[in-house]
Structure formats: C-alpha cells, structure tokens
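Aim 2, interim progress. The first record below pairs a target sequence with its structure tokens.
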Amino acid sequence: MSILEVCNLRKEYRSFLLDDVSFSLEEGKITGFIGRNGAGKSTTLKSLFGFVRPDGGSVEFFGKPFKSNEDEIKRRTGFLLGEVNYYAGKKISAITRVTKPFFSTWDDAAYEKYSKMFSLDENKKPSELSAGMKVKYSLALALSHGAELLILDEPTSGLDPFSRDELLEIFGDLCREGKTLLFSTHITSDLMRCADNIIYIKKGRIIYDGDMNAYTDGYRVVEFDEANELPHEKLIGARREKSGYSALIRAEDVDEKTQCRAATLEEIMLHIEREDKT
C-alpha cells in the first residue's frame, strides 16, 4: 500500500497550471521532490493538505481520502513549511505546552527522546534558534504526536554544509525507525546522499516518479569542444561549460562511438531544464 497516493491533482492560476499531477510514496522510504523555482513543488505540497484548494484530483493518505479523514490524517502526518516563525518571542517550552492539547496522540516520552536527540534547549525562543535548530524543533513536535509521514518544504535551504549533513543523518535515522519522508529541495547533492526515490516536476507536470538510482543510471553526459562538433539529434540540453560544451544523452542511445560518462542528478536537471531552449 502506498502511504500517500496523489491522482490527477490540478490547480489553475492565471499564469500557471498544475497539470494532472500524480505520484505515490513508498512506506519507510525517503523521497526527494525536485524541480526549478516555479515548477509547482510548493503548490503541490500545499494542495495535499488543503492549504491550496485544487481544482481537481484526489489525495489519499494511508489508503484513506483526505477530505473525509482530515483529523486522523493530520495526527499521523507532519507538514513542515520552512522554519518555525510563530511565537518567536516565546520559549520553546511554552510553545510545546500550547501545542500538546491539539493532539490526542501526544507522547511526552517521545518528545523527551527527540528533544534530547536534537539537543533542544527548552529555555530558548525560536528567534534565538539557528535555521537548522528550527527545523529540528518542528520535527520534534511532529514526531511527538506520532507522525508516520513527514512532508517538508525546503528543510535544508539556507543551512551550512555541516548542519545540512547533520539533518540528513537525522532523516536517515527516522527512515530506519519506519518513518516515511517527502521533502522538496534544490540541493540535489542532499538527495544523492539520502533519498531512495525522487519525484521530478517540470512546468507543473510530473516527468518522473520512481527510484533515484534508476533515474540517474538512465542518462550519460557527453562533453565536446565546440557546439557544432558533435551533431546528434538525441542530445539533450547542450550547455556551455568552463571549457567547451556538455549535453545529456539517454543511456539507451549511447553507441560505441559516443564518449560519455555517468551523470549526476544535478547535471540531469541542468540539461533537462535547458531542453526547450536547444
């Protein structure tokens, strides 16, 4: 059973269309949600919980429709939209006391466990926390009411390399505990480090949903000196490099004459996003 099933989600704005978005999440896996700015990532995530009202489509969590099971689903999920900015002048301990009564499944022992794991200082205020600690506090709140699924919008954005690395380790630990994670990011190296699957959205449409390694294995990078040196109708998104040019080619289109190398997820994105310009 998919822990989250999105089918034909649609949202139309004057200048943007989220076009029949469909994807699913595997339980106990980490899934990265990628795409350039304005591709529809945040609109999709907000639509899952009704913060944006979609024009069509369906969303099911744990095999149940969201609309008719909203309270149960919100107890079993954690949705983190960036940093904790509410009650910026209140101590963490006070915010936690206010939050607890909203969840019948709140577990003080779990909160104590994650507070200690994340090294949270109960006497500090959100305004005094680093960006990374704000994310950790949000995670602690979500996990303390028994969230089985965590959906995070750009959780590593703005973090220094060490803080990002530390947070990715936490994601891995949570996955090993049986939690399921979906997080959007522009930092594809983070996904190479921890993700099992990826969902790739481009111009409001899902162009890939599946195993990350299978996706990267499906492409190669071709490098050449001049833009017209290697004419090939199957090259994707040629771009200028520091020295020469590079382009993407599908692994199935590589022949004995093609000199190429493995492609990173970032390189695949860079070339595919340029595809319409070439």
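The second target in this work package is listed in the same format:
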Amino acid sequence: MNRDLTTGEPRKVLWAFCLPMFGSIVFQQLYNLADSLVAGKYIGENALAAVGNSYNITLIFLAFAFGCNIGCSVVTAQLFGAKSYTAMKTAVYTSLIASGVLCLGLMAAGLGFTLPLLRLMKTQPEILADSCLYLTIYIWGLPFLFYYNIATGIFSAMGDSRTPFFFLAASSTANILMDIAFVKWFAMGIAGVAWATFLCQGISCVLSLCLILKRLSAIKTEGRVPVFSRHLLAKTAAVAVPSILQQSFISVGNMMIQGRVNSFGISVAAGYSAAVKLNNLVITSFTTIGNGISNFSAQNLGAGRYPRIRQGTRAGLSLVWRLCVPFCLLYVLGGQYLLLLFLDRSSTLALATGQQFLRILSPFYFVVSAKLVADGVLRGTSAMSRFMAATFTDLILRVALAFVFSDLTRSATGIWSAWPVGWTVATGLSALFYREQCRHLAA
C-alpha cells in the first residue's frame, strides 16, 4: 500500500514507516548470518573464515546495489511527494535499465578479478579455494541482488515499507532452511551456502518486481510514459554515485582492515568474521532507518513542507536511540553466547576476539546512529557533498588508525579501537552539516 509521508503527525508517520524497514533489514542480514552460522557449525572454522573473507568483497557489489536503491528511491520519493506521477514512472524505468547495464559490467569485472582481490587481502591458502567458490556463485546472482534492491527502493519511495518486510521474512527463513539442507543433508559444503542464497534471492527478486510493475500500472497517468530519460538518469546518478562511492570506499577500507586482521591468524579472522556480522546487523539496521528518513525528507522536500524534515529527524533520533539500548546490552553482556551461534566452545581465541570486538564497539552505537540519521536527511535533501565529507572522514580515520593502533599495541585490539574514534569525529561533522542544510532549506 502506497503512503503519503507529507501528512500526519511526523513521529507517528515516521515510526510506522521505519519500523517495518528495521524488521526488513534484520531479515536481510539473516542471509549472511545464516551463511556464516551454517558454515561455522556444519563445515568448520576455516569455512567461517572463508565466508567472512568473501563478505568484504560482496560488500563492494552491495555498495553498487545500495547506491542504485538510494538514487532511485530519493528521486522517486521527491516526484511522488510532488505528485508528478508520469515523471516518477519514467524515473523508475530509467533506473531499471541503467542498473541492468551496470550489473552486467560488475559481473564481468567480478568474475575476472575475484582471485586477485582475495590474494590482495592476504587470504590464507587454506581458505582461498572456498572463498573463490563462494564468491563466484554469489556474482552469478548479482542481477537478483540489484533488481531486488531497486524494487525495495521503489516500495519505500511510495511509502510502503511493509511489503519488503514480508518478502524478506519469507525468503530469509527459507534461506536458513536451505542452507542447512544443502550443507548438512546434501553435503554440498561452502557451495551449498552460496546456492541457497542465490535461489532465495532470485525468487524474492522476481516476485517483488512483478508487484512493483503492477503497482505502477495502477497509478493513473495521462499520455505515453517515456521509458528512459537522460535528465532523470542524471538526477538519479547525482544521488546514486556518491552513495556508491561511499559504500565502495567503505568496502575497500574493510578489505584493508580484513588484510590486517588476517595477519593475526585464522582464529582471530574467524572471531572477527563472526563479530563483524553481528556488528553489521546493527549498523545496517540503523542505515536502513536512515534510508527511511531519506524517503521521508525527500517526499516532504518535493511537497515543499520543510519544517516536517526537522520534526522527522527528532523522531528518527528517538527511534534509533531506543533501539541502541537492547543491542548494546545484548552485545556487552551476552556477546559470547551470540558468538557461539557461529563458533564452537573449543575455538577459545576466536571467541575471545569476537567478544572483545563487540564490547569495544557497542557502547558507541548511540554515536554512530545519530550520524546515520543526519546522513539520511542530507541524502533525502540531495546535500550529497556534505554527506560524502562526513562519510569519508569516518572511513579514512578508521582505516588509518586501525593500522597505527595495531602497530602500537601489537595486537588486533588496536584495530577495534579505531572504530569509535572514526564514528565520533564523523558524527560531529554530520550534525554540523545537518544544521547548515536545515538553515539553507528554511532560507
């Protein structure tokens, strides 16, 4: 069901819109959590490390899919808010065409450079073959990843956050069951983990695209709707490209950090792989709520209702900080038990590594969540240069300090300590840029 985000009490409207998005991303993360869980429990520590190694490269592809999602979503939401339905449909069709071309190029590059990238990350010989196999299957499923992300972006732009939630709940549950079936019962090893994700994502993609096209056809427009527009492509790219660069550079930075983590041995790499999945569950959840705030801001920008943007920001902060409390308590007090979902009790060094990582980072979720809310407003109001400045500050600090601190401490503890510093400085910048953008809109 499409929803107008430009009317109603902002807090109620935003919470009703964002909470299903939060639920959706939790299920989305179950894809990768399930892969790691099954790999660690039913194949072994090396398989868990292989999935973790591969994950850093899959994040590059996710960065492009996420950028296409954001670009299409923001532009579509602005046009939906302005009730320019013909242009909105053209923007959707343009995004589908452009994303398909981009996806084919990434598949070709990915299949050609998978092995060199894994070697660049100093992947241990014991897990190199499994990492390469997992990534190859993943890359063949990129069209499903791209078009599913475009579909969820369109749903969100039109104020519907519930439909993606239902799709993800079903497909993620199926993915867990298929992971176990392919690995435990059919003994397919790491390939079974990858094929389970491929199939479940494919079904979700096809169903969501069919529903999107049906929704669009139900919106009445006059005359012929153009299927491609260079102007709207440029407008979409103005939002998508910075988002892609942001996520891509974060992925490259994570690969550099993964290389440093790998230098401390497979057990440390396995513990980091498990813990970073739990951390990414939280960060991606907050990022998704930030995307919801982007759609809220974009619709109200299109409708010229600027005061609602500031009201939505306050509601967004209240929401993410309430969610921070249980996550922080769970990871600080019960992190060991969550890590045992991926690791055996005999993996003492891996467990200690993951527990230390979670205890250092989780108290700072209150800081980084505020940054992601402010970033959502900057994206939704097309203030992409400010958004990029804050994001790159975070990335550069985290990567540089990970190397500096780990050299000083001669341990992986220095790597984990870099996260809070980068988050804190970047949050200050995002808050400053947000205030400047609000003053600009009010002028």
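The chain has 14 helices and no strands. This observation will shape the mutagenesis plan for the next reporting period.
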